[in-house]
Amino acid sequence: MLKTIGTIAIPQAAGSEFDHAAFDAKTRRVFIAHTARSCIEVIDHDTHRHIATLPGFPGVAGAVADDGQILATNRGSASVALLDAVTLDTRAVCKTGGRPNGAVIVARSGLAIAACIGNDGETPSLQLFGLSDHKHLSIELPGRPRWCVTDAAAERLFLCIREPSMVLVARLPDLGAVTHWKIPSSGAHGLDIDHARQRLYVACDDSTLVEISSITGEVTNAWPIGGPPDVTFFNPATGLVHVAIGEPGLVDSIDPRTGHATRTMTGAGAHTTALVAPDQLYVISPAHGGVLVLSDT
């Protein structure tokens, strides 16, 4: 059950456009891709204050975090940027395929991964970068990539493909043993994983949330949601899956153990979120001029 507990103002947020955000547990900061302004906004979670605007991330499409390291995908410059979550300095920039989108960072393995949509005539690709050894691997993708996650051991990557609708699975750290798990709903998009129950949650453009086994790819359940989704988070503390839907502006929360669903109205265009486990969900809402903070209890 979500309950509004406040808002956090972000400069130039009203009427703007944002994309994927991430909470870094080491610094307790939230990093938000401010796509329309080509910058990253930084929120201090403990004080619920905006503390920095970091420029220089052209068309930034998303941010992911792990152990004090932030990876940002820059669609406008075909690159990924590695940031230090403590100092807020950019430590490295790596060229990628056109329009990098979904991303993963695994600090303990020194891996950064970007799923690239490609520019006109360019084949979509999945690209892996070694953060210390400068390794670079790339494989072609069968369609437009959306979001991606890894299993608990960071031995497998799961990536949503829009069409044909599927979850592509690749072994880490070499992007080998690729398999395709067909999704029975069109437009696989938002994605998260329940490590304990070994389930993936795939939010699809046809207004469906699909649950599949992260071991076999077997479809184990499906539920209707209130519109074409975007960012999807599973909260291990509450067991709820939260799916952000930009139009008309809502978050659907589903308990996959029971199928019970609740709906929280947010704001038009609020299609991205950041989960701050165990008990808060940040909804990035241009209509609210920044972040709508929801309690997840």
Attribute tags:
mainly beta; Thrombin, subunit H; Methylamine Dehydrogenase, Chain H; 2 domains; four-stranded antiparallel sheet
- Any idea what the CATH superfamily of the largest domain is called? YVTN repeat-like/Quinoprotein amine dehydrogenase
| Integer average pLDDT | 97
Write down the overall geometry. globular
Number of helices: 0
Secondary structure class reads mainly beta
The name of the CATH topology of the largest domain is: Methylamine Dehydrogenase, Chain H
Unreliable residue stretches? none
- Can you tell me the CATH architecture of the largest domain? 7 Propeller
Q: Would you state the CATH class of the largest domain?
A: Mainly Beta
Number of domains: 2
Radius of gyration, CA atoms, in whole angstroms: 17 Å
Structure, explained:
The model has no long low-confidence stretch (mean pLDDT 97). The protein is globular. The chain has two domains: 1-17 and 231-297, Beta Barrel (Thrombin, subunit H), CATH 2.40.10; 18-224, Methylamine Dehydrogenase, Chain H. The chain has 297 residues and is mainly beta. 49% of the residues are buried. The termini are close together. It contains no helices and 28 strands. The chain has strands at residues 2-9, 21-24, 29-34, 39-44, 49-55, 60-66, 69-74, 79-84, 90-95, 100-106, 111-116, 125-130, 136-140, 145-150, 156-161, 166-171, 176-182, 188-194, 199-204, 208-213, 219-224, 232-235, 240-245, 250-254, 261-265, 272-276, 280-285, 290-296. The strands form seven sheets. The protein has a four-stranded antiparallel beta sheet, with no helix packed on it.
